[in-house]
Amino acid sequence: MGKDAQFDGETMVEVWRSPGPRPSHVTAPDAAASLMLEPTDHVHSPTSVLGGNNKVEWEGVGGLESLQLQALKNVASRGVLWTHPTEAVSIVFTLHHGGDVEADGNCLFTAFQRAMQLRESPLEVRLRTVKRFLKEFQSCTVDQQAVNDMVSHLYSPDVTTGWGVHILQDVKLLARKTDREALDASIEELVQVGVSRDSAAESIMKDRCIPVTNGESWAKYMSVSGSSNDEYDIITLQYTEEGLLSVDENREGRAAAFGDDIAIQCLASEYEREIFVVQAHGTDAMVESSNCLFFLPHRPSPQAQIRHPPVFLFMKGTGWCSAGADHYEPIIANPASHLPQEKAAIVL
């Protein structure tokens, strides 16, 4: 992705956007009206999608450093200017925190549901995302091998390589809940003959569980919400360069699949809008002090269109090691036609 824009004077925000065509001109006042959703079974009302009364002032968000807080207050007061990628429409949005989200593995879907104020539950949003993925993956317009390679890289990495970048690498496996007793019995047999519990679990799980290596297994994996109603439990094998470090057998079945970039694009496609992940980095993130806030755009797939205003999700980073952290919180985006576009804190 290439850097797209740097805003005036107080350069505390950066935007990253994939190169693409831009409209020749934009319109300003009341542009939001042309992209308002009609009420549906999923959305309470058109205006609730573009912001509601659940916003929290950034001063009330814990753990923010002064630089982060100053940057976030700037986009709350001056707004960000969003331009539709192909249509002559632009809207200024003020951005406000939408409240805390439980760190239970479902935060992407919970944050999205709250930012959109959907009637759907976070689980329904998750399953709708997976359904969208399968629809596109099984179509003839998707490079399935490229998707499979991406999934394998994320969830079944070659633990003999990549140690110049990573300290730890995780391998994800799926165990059917109905198979857990048999798996535990087989592991215990190895333990009884002197094999360590982790080594026994690694051997049995790798032999009998489903590796997450392609689109089909990704769909099974991303469907796991940590509920007793899930078909599968997630097993995590964690490695260092020296070998196996630990096995999370997830015996209580509470681990959920964290949303990833594939899921975010599927959300963007299903709900026909861009999604911006807003990252606020602290002083340990090894970035220049003038650039602590990043807007990472996720557009719908080529099979979908952008018919509605964007959604913003907040990710607070504490360093480059967690810049790709999986905890998301909602941002309430209020259209602000009273704010001049040329005064916006940032142009997306």
From TrEMBL:
Gene3D superfamilies reported in the protein's UniProt record: 3.90.70.80
Superkingdom, taxonomy of origin: Eukaryota
PANTHER family: OS01G0102500 PROTEIN
Name of the protein in question: OTU domain-containing protein
Species this chain originates from: Sphagnum troendelagicum
Lineage summary: Eukaryota, Viridiplantae, Streptophyta, Embryophyta, Bryophyta
